[in-house]
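Researcher: Here's a chain I'd like modeled. Treat it as a single chain, no partners, no ligands.
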Amino acid sequence: MHVKKVGSDDVESPYCCITAESPFAEGLPESSAWFKASLGEHVEGYHLHDGDKVVGHIYYAVSPKALLPYEIESGVACIYCTYVLRGYLHKGYGRMMFDYMKNDLKSQSVKGILIPATEFREWMHYELFLKQGFQPIKEHSPYKVMYFPLAEKDIALEILDLNYTPSKNKVEVTLFKSSFCPVSPFMYNRIKKVAQSFGDKVKLVEMDGTLENMKRYGTLEPLINGKIKLYGPASEEGIMTAIEEEIFELSRQN
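Model: Modeled as a single isolated chain. Structure tokens:
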């Protein structure tokens, strides 16, 4: 077992978290292309190898290039996601990856490592990072922003305000085309399909998931009438319910 910094020779094998059998695999081609094009700017990473097989990863970007809804001082490594295949869990390999990352970034004088951990047990749960020495510094439910100091004990961090004004005459579903995680293209298509099923009751707005739009609007999450109502891989039923709630609310106001 060994850890390797992701280089140009590794861009054909990102996202070990998504198997060919996963429903989210439809997003792999788009996300893999984004990863290849963005490596060294909006994404960097480490792979955990068992021989030639990638069995774990940590993907991140250094501020101010990180695609996260925060205003962060320069020189902070901001983790997007970390994952270890099920058969390799509880064997110390996650700690092995993080120790490698900490030592490597420390040698580059990176100020510290930030991660938007969550309250969801199945997805980047904050307790996993407490074990790695991270401490919460900001909260915005369902996220706990956590920090591990390297060159700097404290950093300046502000959570961006959600700053999007939807249409007033009908419910608006706003989608940002973000390709970092393969789940994102999958959910983009799923939410778009459900939104279109409402016909002229819903206005669909599509935008690029760029750093500029992140800074402008304060998020790249899908919005329903300007609200973040969906996190992660929501079901079609959950999306439909979220839209119906806003249609009802708009009719009540009118």
